[in-house]
TrEMBL record:
The protein, known as: 1-(5-phosphoribosyl)-5-[(5-phosphoribosylamino)methylideneamino] imidazole-4-carboxamide isomerase
GO biological process: L-histidine biosynthetic process; L-tryptophan biosynthetic process
Pathway(s) of this molecule: Amino-acid biosynthesis; L-histidine biosynthesis; L-histidine from 5-phospho-alpha-D-ribose 1-diphosphate: step 4/9
One cellular-component annotation, GO: cytoplasm
Family annotation (SUPFAM superfamilies): Ribulose-phoshate binding barrel
NCBIfam families per the UniProt record, alphabetical: 1-(5-phosphoribosyl)-5-[(5-phosphoribosylamino)methylideneamino]imidazole-4-carboxamide isomerase (TIGR00007)
Amino-acid biosynthesis recorded as keyword: yes
Amino acid sequence: MSEFTVYPAIDVLDGRVVRLHKGDYEKETRYSDDPVAVADGYARAGARWMHLVDLDAARAGGYTLAERLEQIVERTGLQVQTGGGVRTADDVQRLLDAGASRVVVGSMAVRESEEVATWLERFGPDRITVALDTRASEDGAWVLPISGWTSVAEKDLPTMLHTYSEAGLRHLLCTDIGRDGTLSGPNINLYTFLTHAVPDLQIQASGGMRHVHDLRSCRKVGCAGAVLGKALFEGRLTVTDAVAEEEVA
């Protein structure tokens, strides 16, 4: 099997580590007041990467976690992909300067795909992760919520896949919002579609992960990695067990 990477996640809102249910800011569960300590725990458990989200910035713009990002990288040695409120090339550069290994671009990647395509060329495809958060509409189409999942873009998921595949994107994070924070299992049909539609992309699965069997299912259909959130905080899965799946042949 191909290489697989586990990304333990920390979502930060008002300085606290939280999880949202299906992206709803009104359905927040708090887990810790110390994101750096949580990241250190991930590193001690064997993680190589982590996923850091600024939920305040995702909703309002203006990344607020640069200081914590620097602390995490310095203290833990983790490679960090991070985003929230990234609007300009200067924002990307600031996060890279603060120690990010990859910058996650979400709403901007949907609204201004031509602009974000120039960032891929400027910074290189290994420094950008495009995050296309999706949910199924009433007619079954995969739509793209933006602005902290508070509105929906005009372009749909297949359109964006084509755009970024042509632009040279390498890393795509796709979250099924309907499963995010639900512990209901990943949407394997979605990831099967993605890995067949854009086989040149490294797909990161996100939303609903419960246990190692979910990681294996994502890997089996061709995903290059998976983001883990609530399952870790609720004790359904440990970082140690999850990271062990990176080595499964």
